[in-house]
């Protein structure tokens, strides 16, 4: 069936939040294509997820060179959707990709050299069928490459017209401050930082969020639902279609311990008392700070995207609720 986007997709202007001190707004929820969009997945389901997200006003789709499996296949699949369904809407989309993890054999297919980053960006653009991406990230800091070289490659990507903005992912507070300074000096300010952040993973609170606020850099936390742990997915065991049941899934059954589940059960009771699902409460929590621009979710079902977006309709967490959450998490 030919796709025609919902005319109502921009009916909630409050969905969009300014990314740091930039001119760019991102939806409060963005969709990541790490799992469920690869060559091993059912293309029609991946397509339904992307198109439903777009119909609901989600304009930002996050990729990386290595998303699949096999690596590269999520970009290929998304490229197919761009050509088949979204070609008339390129200017409504913020598409990001990254380079930093192992992508091809030999010394030039990994980490943070100029050689790797710029070759990888060219490969990503070919797979996506695009002439530019909106955001190009250094996926992780490289301890063996001068930061000036990695940042220089990002700035070059923008100067050459292959990216509009640049971002950092998995850089600590000190690395981020240094990188931001270099990028500013190169005339390509850092737009955004992508760190792991959820109720059980709090490292960004110890310095990074302050650097981001001070520098005017947006923040788009990944795995806000702890890969599905902070949802109702595992309350009654591991469903056969869940990430933790898949051989290629990054959430392993061994991570779903009785101690974690006990916290999840208690958080679920708290969410129910608020009239929210646990996923919705986890997202309300991540989005509570002004420094957070967007929560970068994943999904395997259209209903999950709908459930997550409904989180934005609920009131923010009260001081009492925040304390109750902290008490459970600290147990
Ligand atoms: N920069 C980096 O280093 C890095 C690393 C990791 C991820 N990321 C980015 O972050 C994105 C999101 O990561 P993630 O997929 O781990 O995020 P997540 O939102 O924490 O987890 C997504 C998973 O949670 C489950 N889920 C989502 N909504 C649900 C709901 N309402 N009810 C029940 N279950 C629900 C689904 O699991 P099932 O599939 O089991 O249904 C879904 O696949 C990635 O796609 C990628 O773009 C970046």
Helix and strand layout, with pairings?
Elements: E1 16-18, E2 25-27, E3 29-32, H1 43-55, E4 60-62, H2 73-84, E5 94-99, H3 114-128, E6 133-138, H4 147-159, E7 163-169, H5 173-185, E8 190-194, H6 208-215, E9 218-219, H7 258-273, H8 278-286, E10 295-297, H9 302-309, H10 319-330
Jot down its keywords.
331 residues; alpha/beta; TIM Barrel; two-stranded antiparallel ribbon; 10 helices; 10 strands; globular; binds NADP nicotinamide-adenine-dinucleotide phosphate
H/E element sequence: EEEHEHEHEHEHEHEHHEHH
| Widest sheet: strand ordering | 9-8-7-6-5-4-3-10
Strand content: 5-15%
Uncertain runs with pLDDT below 50, 5 residues or more? Answer: none
Q: In the CATH classification, which architecture applies?
A: Alpha-Beta Barrel
Number of helices: 10
Q: Output the CATH homologous superfamily.
A: NADP-dependent oxidoreductase domain
What does the radius of gyration come to? 19 Å
Biggest sheet, in brief? 8 strands, parallel
Distance between the termini: 51 Å
Assign the structural class, choosing from mainly alpha, mainly beta, alpha/beta, alpha+beta, or little secondary structure.
alpha/beta
Written account of the structure:
By secondary structure, the chain is α/β, with parallel strands linked by helices. The chain has one domain: TIM Barrel (Alpha-Beta Barrel), CATH 3.20.20. Helices cover 36% and strands 13% of the residues. The chain has helices at 43-55, 73-84, 114-128, 147-159, 173-185, 208-215, 258-273, 278-286, 302-309, 319-330; strands at residues 16-18, 25-27, 29-32, 60-62, 94-99, 133-138, 163-169, 190-194, 218-219, 295-297. The strands form two sheets. It has an eight-stranded parallel β-sheet with strand order 9-8-7-6-5-4-3-10, with helices on one face. The protein has a two-stranded antiparallel ribbon with strand order 1-2. Helix 4 (147-159) links the parallel strand 6 and strand 7. Helix 3 (114-128) runs parallel beside helix 4 (147-159) and helix 7 packs antiparallel against helix 10 (319-330). The N and C termini lie far apart (51 Å). 44% of the residues are buried. The model has no long low-confidence stretch (mean pLDDT 97). NADP nicotinamide-adenine-dinucleotide phosphate (NAP) binds at residues 32-36, 62, 139, 169-170, 194, 222-228, 231-233, 242-243, 279, 296-300, 304, 307-308.
């Amino acid at each position: 069936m030919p796709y025609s986007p919902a005319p109502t997709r921009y009916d909630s202007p409050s969905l969009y939040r300014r990314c740091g001190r930039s001119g760019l707004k991102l939806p409060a929820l963005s969709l990541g294509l790490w799992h469920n969009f690869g060559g091993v997945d059912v293309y029609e389901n991946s397509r339904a997820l992307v198109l439903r997200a777009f119909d609901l006003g989600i304009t930002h789709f996050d990729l990386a060179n290595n998303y699949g499996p096999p690596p590269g296949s999520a970009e290929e699949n998304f490229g197919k959707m761009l050509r088949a369904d979204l070609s008339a809407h390129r200017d409504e989309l913020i598409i990001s990709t990254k380079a930093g993890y192992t992508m091809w054999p030999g010394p030039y297919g990994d980490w943070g050299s100029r050689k790797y980053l710029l070759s990888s960006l060219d490969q990503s653009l070919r797979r996506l069928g695009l002439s530019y991406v909106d955001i190009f990230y250094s996926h992780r800091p490289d301890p063996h490459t001068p930061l000036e070289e990695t940042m220089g490659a990002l700035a070059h990507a923008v100067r050459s017209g292959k990216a509009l903005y640049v971002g950092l992912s998995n850089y600590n507070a000190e690395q981020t401050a240094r990188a931001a300074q270099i990028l500013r000096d190169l005339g390509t300010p850092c737009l955004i930082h992508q760190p792991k952040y959820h109720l059980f993973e709090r490292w960004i609170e110890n310095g990074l969020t302050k650097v981001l606020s001070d520098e005017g850099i947006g923040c788009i936390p990944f795995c806000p639902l702890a890969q599905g742990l902070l949802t109702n997915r595992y309350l009654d065991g591991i469903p056969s279609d869940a990430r933790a049941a898949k051989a290629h899934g990054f959430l392993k059954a061994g991570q779903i311990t009785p101690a974690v589940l006990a916290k999840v059960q208690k958080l679920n009771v708290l969410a129910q008392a608020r009239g929210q699902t646990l996923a919705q409460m986890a997202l309300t929590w991540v989005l509570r700070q002004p420094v957070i621009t967007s929560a970068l979710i994943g999904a395997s079902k259209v209903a999950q995207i709908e459930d997550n977006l409904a989180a934005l309709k609920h009131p923010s967490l009260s001081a009492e609720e925040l304390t109750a959450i902290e008490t459970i998490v600290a147990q």
